[in-house]
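Q: Is it fine to ask for two folds in a single conversation?
A: Yes, each is treated on its own. Send the first.
Q: Here.
A: Result:
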Amino acid sequence: MKVLKRSGEDYLEAIYNLSKQGGGVKSVDVAMSLNVTKPSTHRAIENLVKNGLALKESYGQVSLTCEGEKLAKEVLKKHKAVTMLLTKILGVSEEIAEIDACKIEHELSEETTKKLYEFLAIE
Protein backbone atom coordinates (compact mmCIF):
# COMPACT_ATOMS: atom_id res chain seq x y z
CA MET A 1 0.00 0.00 0.00
CA LYS A 2 1.27 3.49 -0.81
CA VAL A 3 2.44 5.77 1.97
CA LEU A 4 1.23 9.35 1.78
CA LYS A 5 2.00 12.46 3.70
CA ARG A 6 -0.59 13.70 6.14
CA SER A 7 -2.20 16.08 3.65
CA GLY A 8 -2.57 13.33 1.06
CA GLU A 9 -4.33 11.14 3.60
CA ASP A 10 -6.60 14.06 4.52
CA TYR A 11 -7.57 14.49 0.87
CA LEU A 12 -8.26 10.77 0.44
CA GLU A 13 -10.41 10.75 3.56
CA ALA A 14 -12.32 13.85 2.43
CA ILE A 15 -12.99 12.45 -1.05
CA TYR A 16 -14.12 9.15 0.45
CA ASN A 17 -16.43 10.81 3.01
CA LEU A 18 -17.93 13.15 0.40
CA SER A 19 -18.53 10.25 -2.00
CA LYS A 20 -20.52 8.45 0.70
CA GLN A 21 -22.91 11.42 0.93
CA GLY A 22 -24.19 10.67 -2.55
CA GLY A 23 -23.76 12.51 -5.80
CA GLY A 24 -20.45 13.31 -7.41
CA VAL A 25 -17.43 14.82 -5.72
CA LYS A 26 -15.90 17.95 -7.23
CA SER A 27 -12.63 19.63 -6.31
CA VAL A 28 -14.48 22.59 -4.85
CA ASP A 29 -16.36 20.22 -2.49
CA VAL A 30 -13.05 18.80 -1.29
CA ALA A 31 -11.59 22.29 -0.81
CA MET A 32 -14.59 23.39 1.23
CA SER A 33 -14.55 20.20 3.28
CA LEU A 34 -10.90 20.68 4.25
CA ASN A 35 -11.07 24.48 4.42
CA VAL A 36 -8.22 24.87 1.93
CA THR A 37 -7.80 26.79 -1.33
CA LYS A 38 -8.90 25.48 -4.71
CA PRO A 39 -5.33 25.63 -6.12
CA SER A 40 -4.05 23.54 -3.17
CA THR A 41 -6.82 21.04 -3.74
CA HIS A 42 -6.07 20.88 -7.45
CA ARG A 43 -2.38 20.11 -6.76
CA ALA A 44 -3.24 17.50 -4.14
CA ILE A 45 -5.74 15.74 -6.39
CA GLU A 46 -3.26 15.74 -9.27
CA ASN A 47 -0.75 14.12 -6.92
CA LEU A 48 -3.31 11.46 -5.94
CA VAL A 49 -4.03 10.83 -9.63
CA LYS A 50 -0.29 10.54 -10.36
CA ASN A 51 0.03 7.97 -7.57
CA GLY A 52 -2.88 5.91 -8.90
CA LEU A 53 -5.13 6.69 -5.94
CA ALA A 54 -7.72 8.91 -7.62
CA LEU A 55 -9.31 9.62 -10.97
CA LYS A 56 -10.38 13.06 -12.17
CA GLU A 57 -12.39 14.00 -15.18
CA SER A 58 -11.45 17.29 -16.87
CA TYR A 59 -13.46 19.95 -15.04
CA GLY A 60 -15.45 17.16 -13.50
CA GLN A 61 -15.77 14.73 -10.72
CA VAL A 62 -13.11 13.17 -8.56
CA SER A 63 -13.26 9.53 -7.50
CA LEU A 64 -10.94 7.12 -5.77
CA THR A 65 -9.38 4.10 -7.40
CA CYS A 66 -9.70 0.75 -5.61
CA GLU A 67 -6.29 1.33 -4.02
CA GLY A 68 -7.24 4.90 -3.07
CA GLU A 69 -10.47 3.74 -1.46
CA LYS A 70 -8.65 1.00 0.45
CA LEU A 71 -6.15 3.53 1.81
CA ALA A 72 -8.91 6.02 2.64
CA LYS A 73 -10.79 3.34 4.59
CA GLU A 74 -7.64 2.52 6.57
CA VAL A 75 -7.11 6.21 7.44
CA LEU A 76 -10.76 6.50 8.46
CA LYS A 77 -10.51 3.31 10.56
CA LYS A 78 -7.50 4.74 12.41
CA HIS A 79 -9.33 8.05 12.87
CA LYS A 80 -12.34 6.30 14.39
CA ALA A 81 -10.15 4.13 16.63
CA VAL A 82 -8.22 7.12 17.96
CA THR A 83 -11.46 9.05 18.48
CA MET A 84 -12.93 6.08 20.36
CA LEU A 85 -9.83 5.81 22.57
CA LEU A 86 -9.91 9.51 23.37
CA THR A 87 -13.64 9.71 24.10
CA LYS A 88 -14.55 6.33 25.61
CA ILE A 89 -11.34 5.51 27.48
CA LEU A 90 -9.84 8.90 28.29
CA GLY A 91 -13.05 10.94 28.55
CA VAL A 92 -12.03 13.63 26.06
CA SER A 93 -14.93 15.62 24.58
CA GLU A 94 -16.12 14.64 21.08
CA GLU A 95 -15.08 18.00 19.63
CA ILE A 96 -11.53 17.86 20.98
CA ALA A 97 -11.22 14.13 20.23
CA GLU A 98 -12.05 14.78 16.54
CA ILE A 99 -9.43 17.51 16.30
CA ASP A 100 -6.78 15.43 18.05
CA ALA A 101 -7.63 12.27 16.11
CA CYS A 102 -6.98 14.15 12.85
CA LYS A 103 -3.49 14.91 14.10
CA ILE A 104 -2.70 11.53 15.66
CA GLU A 105 -4.02 9.20 12.95
CA HIS A 106 -1.26 10.13 10.52
CA GLU A 107 1.60 9.52 12.93
CA LEU A 108 0.75 6.09 14.33
CA SER A 109 3.21 3.32 13.60
CA GLU A 110 1.95 0.01 12.25
CA GLU A 111 2.72 -1.65 15.60
CA THR A 112 0.82 0.97 17.61
CA THR A 113 -2.10 0.84 15.20
CA LYS A 114 -2.28 -2.94 15.53
CA LYS A 115 -2.18 -2.74 19.35
CA LEU A 116 -4.84 0.00 19.34
CA TYR A 117 -7.15 -2.18 17.24
CA GLU A 118 -6.53 -5.13 19.56
CA PHE A 119 -7.20 -3.02 22.66
CA LEU A 120 -10.45 -1.66 21.21
CA ALA A 121 -11.39 -5.04 19.66
CA ILE A 122 -11.50 -3.57 16.15
CA GLU A 123 -10.84 -5.83 13.20
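Q: Second one now.
A: Result:
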Amino acid sequence: MINLKDLILFQTLTDEECKQCQSALRVREKRFEKGDFLMHAGDRTEWMGIVLSGSVTIESNDAWGNCTILSHVSAGQCFAETYALLPQTVMLVDVRANENCTVLFLNAGSLLNDTPGSPWKEKLLKNLLLITAGKNLALSGRSFHTAPKSCRGRLLSYLNAVSLQKGTTTFDIPFDRQQLADYLNLERTNLSKELGKMQREGIISFKKNHFKIIRNDL
Protein backbone atom coordinates (compact mmCIF):
# COMPACT_ATOMS: atom_id res chain seq x y z
CA MET A 1 0.00 0.00 0.00
CA ILE A 2 1.27 3.48 -0.82
CA ASN A 3 2.30 5.84 1.97
CA LEU A 4 -0.76 8.12 2.27
CA LYS A 5 1.39 11.13 3.17
CA ASP A 6 2.78 11.03 -0.37
CA LEU A 7 -0.67 12.16 -1.57
CA ILE A 8 -1.83 15.77 -1.43
CA LEU A 9 -5.05 14.83 0.33
CA PHE A 10 -3.14 13.47 3.35
CA GLN A 11 -0.04 15.67 3.50
CA THR A 12 -1.07 17.61 6.62
CA LEU A 13 -1.84 14.47 8.62
CA THR A 14 0.55 12.77 11.03
CA ASP A 15 1.61 9.17 10.50
CA GLU A 16 -0.73 8.07 13.28
CA GLU A 17 -3.63 10.03 11.78
CA CYS A 18 -2.97 8.42 8.40
CA LYS A 19 -3.24 5.00 10.03
CA GLN A 20 -6.51 6.00 11.68
CA CYS A 21 -8.13 7.33 8.51
CA GLN A 22 -6.82 4.40 6.45
CA SER A 23 -8.86 2.12 8.68
CA ALA A 24 -11.87 4.42 9.07
CA LEU A 25 -12.17 5.17 5.35
CA ARG A 26 -11.57 1.54 4.33
CA VAL A 27 -8.80 2.52 1.93
CA ARG A 28 -8.21 0.01 -0.85
CA GLU A 29 -6.09 -0.12 -4.00
CA LYS A 30 -7.29 -1.43 -7.36
CA ARG A 31 -5.85 -1.77 -10.85
CA PHE A 32 -7.68 -1.15 -14.14
CA GLU A 33 -6.94 -1.75 -17.81
CA LYS A 34 -7.24 0.97 -20.44
CA GLY A 35 -10.89 1.46 -21.36
CA ASP A 36 -12.29 -0.03 -18.15
CA PHE A 37 -15.11 1.86 -16.46
CA LEU A 38 -14.37 2.66 -12.82
CA MET A 39 -17.75 4.29 -12.13
CA HIS A 40 -20.96 4.60 -14.10
CA ALA A 41 -23.52 7.34 -14.63
CA GLY A 42 -26.75 6.47 -12.84
CA ASP A 43 -24.94 4.98 -9.84
CA ARG A 44 -24.73 6.39 -6.33
CA THR A 45 -21.46 6.15 -4.44
CA GLU A 46 -19.78 6.93 -1.13
CA TRP A 47 -16.37 6.21 -2.65
CA MET A 48 -13.91 8.68 -4.13
CA GLY A 49 -10.75 7.79 -5.97
CA ILE A 50 -7.17 9.00 -6.14
CA VAL A 51 -5.16 8.05 -9.22
CA LEU A 52 -1.83 6.53 -8.16
CA SER A 53 -0.51 5.75 -11.64
CA GLY A 54 -1.80 6.25 -15.18
CA SER A 55 -4.83 8.47 -15.71
CA VAL A 56 -8.62 8.45 -16.03
CA THR A 57 -11.14 10.61 -17.85
CA ILE A 58 -14.44 11.98 -16.56
CA GLU A 59 -16.98 11.58 -19.36
CA SER A 60 -20.58 12.33 -20.19
CA ASN A 61 -21.91 9.52 -22.41
CA ASP A 62 -25.52 9.92 -23.52
CA ALA A 63 -28.07 7.37 -24.71
CA TRP A 64 -27.31 8.21 -28.35
CA GLY A 65 -23.62 7.32 -28.13
CA ASN A 66 -22.26 10.86 -27.85
CA CYS A 67 -19.25 11.29 -25.59
CA THR A 68 -18.05 14.52 -24.01
CA ILE A 69 -14.83 14.45 -22.00
CA LEU A 70 -15.20 16.80 -19.05
CA SER A 71 -11.77 16.40 -17.48
CA HIS A 72 -8.56 14.40 -17.41
CA VAL A 73 -7.41 13.09 -14.02
CA SER A 74 -3.72 12.29 -13.80
CA ALA A 75 -1.61 10.61 -11.12
CA GLY A 76 -2.02 12.21 -7.70
CA GLN A 77 -5.40 13.75 -8.50
CA CYS A 78 -8.84 12.88 -7.10
CA PHE A 79 -12.20 12.12 -8.67
CA ALA A 80 -15.81 11.57 -7.54
CA GLU A 81 -15.24 13.32 -4.21
CA THR A 82 -18.35 15.49 -4.60
CA TYR A 83 -20.57 12.49 -5.30
CA ALA A 84 -19.00 10.63 -2.36
CA LEU A 85 -19.92 13.48 -0.01
CA LEU A 86 -23.44 13.58 -1.46
CA PRO A 87 -24.14 9.83 -1.64
CA GLN A 88 -27.84 10.25 -2.42
CA THR A 89 -27.01 12.13 -5.62
CA VAL A 90 -27.08 10.10 -8.84
CA MET A 91 -23.86 10.29 -10.82
CA LEU A 92 -24.23 12.05 -14.17
CA VAL A 93 -20.79 11.06 -15.44
CA ASP A 94 -18.72 7.97 -16.16
CA VAL A 95 -15.15 7.47 -15.00
CA ARG A 96 -13.02 5.54 -17.49
CA ALA A 97 -9.38 4.39 -17.46
CA ASN A 98 -7.52 6.51 -20.00
CA GLU A 99 -4.64 4.03 -19.81
CA ASN A 100 -3.64 1.19 -17.53
CA CYS A 101 -3.90 2.69 -14.07
CA THR A 102 -3.88 2.07 -10.34
CA VAL A 103 -6.44 3.83 -8.15
CA LEU A 104 -6.80 4.26 -4.41
CA PHE A 105 -10.44 4.25 -3.24
CA LEU A 106 -11.65 5.59 0.09
CA ASN A 107 -15.09 5.83 1.61
CA ALA A 108 -15.37 9.62 1.83
CA GLY A 109 -19.03 9.36 2.77
CA SER A 110 -17.97 8.27 6.24
CA LEU A 111 -16.34 11.68 6.78
CA LEU A 112 -19.81 13.10 7.37
CA ASN A 113 -20.78 10.89 10.31
CA ASP A 114 -20.66 12.26 13.84
CA THR A 115 -18.00 9.97 15.27
CA PRO A 116 -16.20 11.90 18.05
CA GLY A 117 -12.47 11.97 18.69
CA SER A 118 -11.29 12.12 15.07
CA PRO A 119 -9.11 15.26 14.69
CA TRP A 120 -7.81 13.99 11.37
CA LYS A 121 -11.26 14.52 9.84
CA GLU A 122 -10.98 18.30 10.06
CA LYS A 123 -7.61 18.23 8.33
CA LEU A 124 -8.84 15.87 5.64
CA LEU A 125 -11.99 17.89 4.96
CA LYS A 126 -9.93 21.09 4.69
CA ASN A 127 -7.58 19.44 2.19
CA LEU A 128 -10.58 18.10 0.28
CA LEU A 129 -12.11 21.57 0.12
CA LEU A 130 -8.93 23.01 -1.38
CA ILE A 131 -8.72 20.19 -3.93
CA THR A 132 -12.38 20.67 -4.89
CA ALA A 133 -11.88 24.41 -5.32
CA GLY A 134 -9.02 23.75 -7.71
CA LYS A 135 -11.10 21.30 -9.71
CA ASN A 136 -13.93 23.83 -9.97
CA LEU A 137 -11.46 26.24 -11.55
CA ALA A 138 -10.42 23.57 -14.04
CA LEU A 139 -14.05 22.83 -14.98
CA SER A 140 -14.83 26.51 -15.41
CA GLY A 141 -11.78 26.70 -17.66
CA ARG A 142 -13.34 24.11 -19.96
CA SER A 143 -16.40 26.36 -20.36
CA PHE A 144 -14.08 29.06 -21.72
CA HIS A 145 -12.67 26.64 -24.29
CA THR A 146 -16.08 25.53 -25.55
CA ALA A 147 -17.55 29.06 -25.63
CA PRO A 148 -16.06 30.12 -29.01
CA LYS A 149 -18.26 29.10 -31.93
CA SER A 150 -15.41 28.24 -34.30
CA CYS A 151 -13.19 25.18 -34.17
CA ARG A 152 -10.09 27.38 -34.32
CA GLY A 153 -11.33 29.55 -31.49
CA ARG A 154 -11.77 26.53 -29.23
CA LEU A 155 -8.35 25.14 -30.11
CA LEU A 156 -6.63 28.47 -29.53
CA SER A 157 -8.36 28.87 -26.18
CA TYR A 158 -7.35 25.41 -25.00
CA LEU A 159 -3.76 25.49 -26.26
CA ASN A 160 -3.22 28.96 -24.83
CA ALA A 161 -4.50 27.79 -21.42
CA VAL A 162 -2.20 24.76 -21.39
CA SER A 163 0.73 26.97 -22.37
CA LEU A 164 -0.02 29.38 -19.51
CA GLN A 165 -0.40 26.55 -17.00
CA LYS A 166 2.88 24.94 -17.98
CA GLY A 167 4.74 28.23 -18.39
CA THR A 168 6.10 27.34 -21.83
CA THR A 169 5.03 27.47 -25.47
CA THR A 170 6.16 23.86 -25.98
CA PHE A 171 4.13 21.23 -24.15
CA ASP A 172 2.29 17.90 -24.24
CA ILE A 173 -1.47 17.62 -23.87
CA PRO A 174 -3.11 14.62 -22.11
CA PHE A 175 -5.53 13.83 -24.97
CA ASP A 176 -5.35 11.97 -28.26
CA ARG A 177 -7.25 13.45 -31.23
CA GLN A 178 -10.59 11.83 -30.46
CA GLN A 179 -10.37 12.76 -26.80
CA LEU A 180 -9.46 16.35 -27.65
CA ALA A 181 -12.43 16.54 -30.00
CA ASP A 182 -14.69 15.14 -27.28
CA TYR A 183 -13.29 17.59 -24.72
CA LEU A 184 -13.86 20.61 -26.99
CA ASN A 185 -17.22 19.36 -28.32
CA LEU A 186 -15.95 19.14 -31.90
CA GLU A 187 -16.05 16.60 -34.68
CA ARG A 188 -12.73 14.81 -34.94
CA THR A 189 -12.49 15.35 -38.70
CA ASN A 190 -13.03 19.10 -38.36
CA LEU A 191 -10.56 19.31 -35.50
CA SER A 192 -7.87 17.47 -37.47
CA LYS A 193 -8.42 19.67 -40.52
CA GLU A 194 -8.18 22.84 -38.46
CA LEU A 195 -5.02 21.68 -36.72
CA GLY A 196 -3.49 21.04 -40.14
CA LYS A 197 -4.46 24.52 -41.34
CA MET A 198 -3.03 26.15 -38.22
CA GLN A 199 0.24 24.29 -38.70
CA ARG A 200 0.48 25.28 -42.38
CA GLU A 201 -0.20 28.90 -41.43
CA GLY A 202 2.64 28.83 -38.93
CA ILE A 203 0.45 29.35 -35.88
CA ILE A 204 1.41 26.05 -34.20
CA SER A 205 3.44 22.95 -34.84
CA PHE A 206 2.60 19.54 -33.44
CA LYS A 207 3.29 15.85 -33.56
CA LYS A 208 0.75 13.58 -31.89
CA ASN A 209 0.10 15.19 -28.50
CA HIS A 210 3.23 17.39 -28.48
CA PHE A 211 2.52 21.02 -29.40
CA LYS A 212 4.42 24.25 -29.89
CA ILE A 213 2.80 27.68 -30.16
CA ILE A 214 4.72 29.61 -32.81
CA ARG A 215 2.53 32.70 -33.21
CA ASN A 216 0.72 34.19 -30.24
CA ASP A 217 -0.09 37.57 -31.76
CA LEU A 218 -3.46 36.55 -33.30
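Q: Anything structural to flag on that second result?
A: Two points. The first strand starts at residue 28 and ends at 32. The CA atoms of residues 162 and 168 lie 9 Å apart.
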